[in-house]
């Protein structure tokens, strides 16, 4: 709320009338005043210094000069680079992380250690890939490892039985660092097991679904639910404690609500401040990861940014996580991106589409110093994805994820 400007207040003081005094009287008056002030100052200094020395304990070290405290929680790094003059991070107070260069493994390659090893061997050479991303929890809520988290076992979300230790051992044996990819609130399984994890209608408290039951409507996991947030947090903790060096949390977002949906749901979902539920959840996941000696990045979709649905990065000061992964899905761009007021067409090669979308979203990412670009798409080959990655590199994005 802005304060109402009432204008400056002008304070006036009455001047003393010295016109009745002679010039000699004025001089004597000024002289006595100066002597009086000087005497008081000398006496004050003479008394104050001994008192200070008396109250200070013997052997106390001199107080160090005050240091500037950082207002941001930075992600830990083994070798944080020094900020040089002219570096953009010198203006924001953040420290740029080392480049993140990764390739993604498909869920179909997680059946056992042999399949995972074969998939890792197919990672394109010559790209200086350092991390292998493992999709532990995917959109819809499925989990692709033997989790021991309560709701994972109770909800039937587990669709694979490879151990986290086997995954990590296989990745490290191939010379890479393990990273975990976890879809968060795009989960239709958890709310079916525990209704408190999903969205509820404002009036009746019924479970909200994204379509009619006849059309296959599904419930979604809500960031306003402590059950949901703690469930995802437990998965983050499980992955970090197992040894995943980086956690990537995607889908920290709301479902694509229609106006008719918002009319049924609680009023806070219509408010601009709804982003705070997402940033609070992201900060909790971040704390869980850091406590287990891992780091974390938030993944946002380029199409969500264009649609103004990337609430989690709307207010950077609320978000402790400073590493962002921008997900560019070539298939989604090819279909066009539609908003209430704009239609974004993307034609040409994958590289041309990436170049265009990066130009459109760059202002939304300017407050984040660590941005990696994920380029994926089932309708384009690996060669095209690599060419698109080079376009991103030319625009200053030196961190990337292939797939």
What are the salient characteristics of this protein?
disordered N terminus, 403 residues, 10 strands, 8-stranded parallel beta barrel, alpha/beta
Protein model, in words:
Helix content is 35%, strand content 13%. It has 403 residues and is an alpha/beta fold. Helix 7 runs parallel beside helix 9 and helix 12 packs parallel to helix 13. The strands form two sheets. Strands 1-2-3-4-5-6-9-10 form an eight-stranded parallel beta barrel, surrounded by four helices. A two-stranded antiparallel ribbon has the order 7-8. A hairpin with a 4-residue loop joins strand 7 and strand 8. It is globular, with a radius of gyration of 30 Å. It contains 13 helices and ten strands.
Largest sheet, in brief, is:
8 strands, parallel, barrel
Beta-strand percent range = 5-15%
Shape by Cα distribution: globular
Strands in their spatial order, largest beta sheet: 1-2-3-4-5-6-9-10
Oligomer: single chain
């Amino acid at each position: 709320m802005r304060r109402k400007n009432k204008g400056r207040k002008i304070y006036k003081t009455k001047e003393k009338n010295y016109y009745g005094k002679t010039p000699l009287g004025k001089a004597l008056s000024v002289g006595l005043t100066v002597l009086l002030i000087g005497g008081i100052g000398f006496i004050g200094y003479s008394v104050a210094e001994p008192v200070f020395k008396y109250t200070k304990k013997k052997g106390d070290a001199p107080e160090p000069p005050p240091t500037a405290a950082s207002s941001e929680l930075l992600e830990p790094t083994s070798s944080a680079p020094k900020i040089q003059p002219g570096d953009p991070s010198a203006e924001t107070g953040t420290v740029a992380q080392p480049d993140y260069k990764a390739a993604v493994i498909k869920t179909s390659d997680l059946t056992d250690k042999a399949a995972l090893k074969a998939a890792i061997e197919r990672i394109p050479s010559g790209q200086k890939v350092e991390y292998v991303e493992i999709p532990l929890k995917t959109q819809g809520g499925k989990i692709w490892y033997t989790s021991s988290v309560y709701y994972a076992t109770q909800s039937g979300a587990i669709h694979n039985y490879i151990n986290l230790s086997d995954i990590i051992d296989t990745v490290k044996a191939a010379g890479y660092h393990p990273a975990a990819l976890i879809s968060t609130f795009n989960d239709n399984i958890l709310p079916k097991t525990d209704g408190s994890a999903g969205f509820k209608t404002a009036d009746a408290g019924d479970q909200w679904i994204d379509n009619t039951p006849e059309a296959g409507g599904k419930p979604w996991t809500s960031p306003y639910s402590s059950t949901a947030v703690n469930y995802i947090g437990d998965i983050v903790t499980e992955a970090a404690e197992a040894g995943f060096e980086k956690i990537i949390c995607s889908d920290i977002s709301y479902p694509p609500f229609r106006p008719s949906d918002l009319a049924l749901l609680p009023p806070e979902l219509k408010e601009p401040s709804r982003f705070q539920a997402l940033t609070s959840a992201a900060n909790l996941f971040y704390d869980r990861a850091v406590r287990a000696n891992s780091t974390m990045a938030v993944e946002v979709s380029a199409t969500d940014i264009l649609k103004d649905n990337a609430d989690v990065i709307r207010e950077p000061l609320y978000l402790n996580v400073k590493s962002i992964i921008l997900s560019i899905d070539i298939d989604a761009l090819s279909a066009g991106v539609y908003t209430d007021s704009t239609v974004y067409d993307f034609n040409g090669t994958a590289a041309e589409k990436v170049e265009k979308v990066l130009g459109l979203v760059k202002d939304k990412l300017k407050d984040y110093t660590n941005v990696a670009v994920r380029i994926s798409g089932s309708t384009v080959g690996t060669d095209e994805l690599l060419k698109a990655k080079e376009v991103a590199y030319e625009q200053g994005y030196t961190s990337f994820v292939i797939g």
